[in-house]
Structures are given as structure tokens and as C-alpha cells.
Amino acid sequence: MNTLAPIAARKPPPAPERGWTGTRIAGHVLMALWIVSGAVLLLYLANNVMSPFVQRYWSQYLEGAVVTIELVALSMVLGALLSLPIALARSSRNPILSGLAYGYVYLFRGTPLLAQLFLIYYGLGSFRGFFSDIGLWWFFRDAWYCAIFSFTLNTAAYQAEILRGAVQNIDKGQWEAASSLGLGKGVTFFRIILPQALIVALRPYGNELVLMIKGSAIVSIITIFDLMGHTRRSFSRSYDFQAYIWAAVLYLMMVEGLRRIWDRLEARLTRHLKRSA
């Protein structure tokens, strides 16, 4: 007869107390400074929400925000359409297609967006006679079209790499399973692989969209009155530094709103991947 009694579980030893090291003290001090700075900023905005500056320029700020959203949305959609053939060319076994796609991605990811915008808006203007002969000068003389064009080319390079990485992340066994069922490569890619790859790429796409919103401020340099364009004009007329504070607040609101929408979209599209408790 076994008379051994079960051994009672022992409580783990208490965690050692953390000492107040120099790094920890500096971290708390910096956090306190950030909290105080945020509180001061909120108080300042609350006191100036009905100021003459806001009443005079707020409608222009909203118009600029709408232009910014339109610019980013159009560029992202057109860039997504362009990124698909680029991603396919990057993954191609044809060295010519792969090399051209690699050069495109390398160029637009390795150079500043501002330089690309200047080259398209100012640089292509040097070839006015050529574009007039082929009937495209109406496009390249307009700052709005040049901004859309440059932003589309830039984001297409990033989206192509995002999509290519997501496709490579899909298990190759799915290609083999589809082939065993007699499905062609085109049907397999567009019906099986691509939908899964887009779900994998949701988070990187959201990051790219946020970067595009923040990077769109440079179009104000080429006379487009987006949010930053109206900010620059309002500051030049009032010399009130709160012009840039309100612009920062609006950019923050757009980015935070987009982040929340994107999180809900991702949760909606990936709900089948979550296991029930």
C-alpha cells in the first residue's frame, strides 16, 4: 500500500526589489517631462480652439486635409495596381524581367521621394516640346498630376516588395496541391495564393499608408495646397506658430484614425485565423 502523501506546491520566492539605478531614474524623469509637455500642449490647444487664427483658417485646414487624403488614396490605389506586375516580374525566372523590376524597385526605394517629385515636376518640364508633340504636356505641366504620378511610382516600388514577400511567405505546398487538382498557375495565384498573401501583407500595407500620409507634406513645395500647403500660407500671413501645431494635430488625427480603421479591418479579415478559447 502506497502511503506517500502528495507534496504541497511551494510558492515561488518573491522577486527581488528593483533598485533606483541611474537609467531607471532618467527614464522616469523623461516620462514625466513628456507627460507635462503633453498636458501643456493640450491646455494650449484648449485655450486657442476658438482663437481668431482658428476661426479664420480652420476651413482652409479642412480643405487641405481633404486634398491630402485624396492624394494619398489615389496614389495608393494606382500604386497597388502597378505593384502587382512589378512583383510578378521580380519573382520571374526571366533574367531580363527580373532585372528591370529590380532596377525599378532599387531606384525608387533608394532615392528620396522629394528628389523624385522634383525630377518629375521640374525635370520633365525641360522636355516641354517633346511632351507637347505627343500630347502629354497637359499632364506634366499640372502639379497635381505630377504629384500623383511621382507618389504612385514611389509607393508601387514599396508595395511590390511587400507583395512579393507576402507571396513567398505562403507555403509552397499549396502550389503543389493546386497543381495536383489540375489548376493552372494563373488560377492558383489569383484564387488561392494572392488572397492569402494580401492578408499577410495587411500590416505592412498599413505602415506604407501611414508613411504616405506623412510624406505627402512635400507636395506643398510644388504649389499644391494640401494640409501643409495651407499651413505654410496661413503662417506666412499671420506669423503665428500655432499654424504648425494645428497641422501636426490634424496629421496625428488622420494617422490615428487610419490606424484604428486598419486594426478593425485586419481583425475582420483575419477572424477565421483566431482560435476559440
Number of helical segments?
A: 12
Structural class comes to: mainly alpha
User: What are the segments in which pLDDT stays under 50 over at least 5 consecutive residues?
Assistant: none
- Envelope shape: flat
Query: How much helicity do the residues have?
Result: over 70%
This entry's quaternary arrangement is: single chain
Mean pLDDT: 87
Strand content: under 5%
Q: Cα-atom Rg, whole angstroms?
A: 27 Å
What is the H-and-E element order?
HHHHHHHHHHHH
Span between termini: 41 Å
- In total, the number of strands is 0
The biggest beta sheet is recorded as: none
Keywords:
277 residues, flat, mainly alpha
Short summary:
This protein has 277 residues and is mainly α. The chain has 12 helices and no strands.
Note the topology.
Elements: H1 22-48, H2 52-90, H3 95-110, H4 113-123, H5 128-133, H6 137-140, H7 143-169, H8 173-180, H9 185-200, H10 202-215, H11 227-238, H12 242-269
Helix pairs in contact: 2-3, 2-7, 2-11, 3-7, 4-7, 7-9, 7-10, 8-9, 10-12, 11-12
Descriptive account of the structure:
Helix content is 75%, strand content 0%. It is an all-alpha fold and 277 residues long. It is flat and about 60 Å long. The chain starts with 21 loop residues before the first helix and ends in an 8-residue tail after the last helix. The model has no long low-confidence stretch (mean pLDDT 87).
